[in-house]
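In this section we walk through a basic example: taking a raw amino acid sequence and producing a predicted 3D structure, encoded as discrete structure tokens. The instruction is simple. Fold the sequence below.
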Amino acid sequence: MMAVDCVTSGYAPFHGFDITTNFHEYLKLSDELSAFDFDTFVGGHLTDIGTQKDVEITKEFTYDVYNTVKRIHNHLDQTAVAAEAAKAVGAENEFALFKAVLDRVTDDSVRELQPRWVDRLAGVDVWLPSHVWTALIYVRWDDKE
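The resulting token sequence is shown next.
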């Protein structure tokens, strides 16, 4: 099996879960990699050889981002967020109101996730907002679960 740039031992994935255009398949890949029994993992960029534990940590991170974003998105009072934003930008500016909702989900998710991961994976401080955005796009438009 070949899985290039999906796990980098000790690091958060690169921007937007490795620039994925299909987060559903990215989630499935985490499960598929975890199903293999191995001792050594060669992930590619930035690091030395890793282990199955590195794959499990990356899977845990990926699912934590997904589940956190989904929970925050699904429980957010979007009408209230839009109403608050309308005070500043006007009710007619629908794109700005919608962006305020997406920004709130992103900000709240990053605020919750960062303390859990910043000391576990290098690069979380750099790439976490992009991972949250990738998960948010999936949750908002593609998630069937």
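Looking at the output, two observations stand out. The two ends are 28 Å apart (CA to CA). The chain has one domain: 15-142. In the next section we compare this with other chains.
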